[in-house]
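User: Fold this; tokens only.

Assistant: Input:
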Amino acid sequence: MEVSVVEKLEKAATNVLRQCMAVREGEDVLIISDTALRPIGELFFRKALEEKADAMLLIMKPRMRHGEEPPKLVAQAMKAADVVLAPMSMSLTHTRARKEASAAGVRMATLPGITEETMARTLVADYGAIAERSRRLAEMITGGREVRVTTPAGTDLRVSIEGRECRYDTGI
């Protein structure tokens, strides 16, 4: 039986809350969205409530560009939360508000430009398996001397990696 798009979206939102953000019962979870991505923000909010989080949904007008600061009230709320998810049209990643929230210990994921299609296709991944694969690959690269990339089209690229440390990002 094929899984519906709605079921995939719900699984994706639950996956983000459980695997990526490790939301625990009673934590303050802030969902910040804008009018353009409101349905995705509302989905994360509903799923955070199902996880028994003390969830709040803030909808604001879309920013004009990536990195534009959110309103002061939103920035204050970000610092007070345990977890922040930000499905927005424009990214909050490089804002002072995000940096201050992170410095305060907030676990935060910005999801600029996320679409329902992208969510349903990618956020249902097994992040535990991705983390393990990423760690193993990083160890191989850190201990390696050379990387070779080949393709059926004839690409044959060799790059020295000797003495380099590989860092990985698991999505968790």
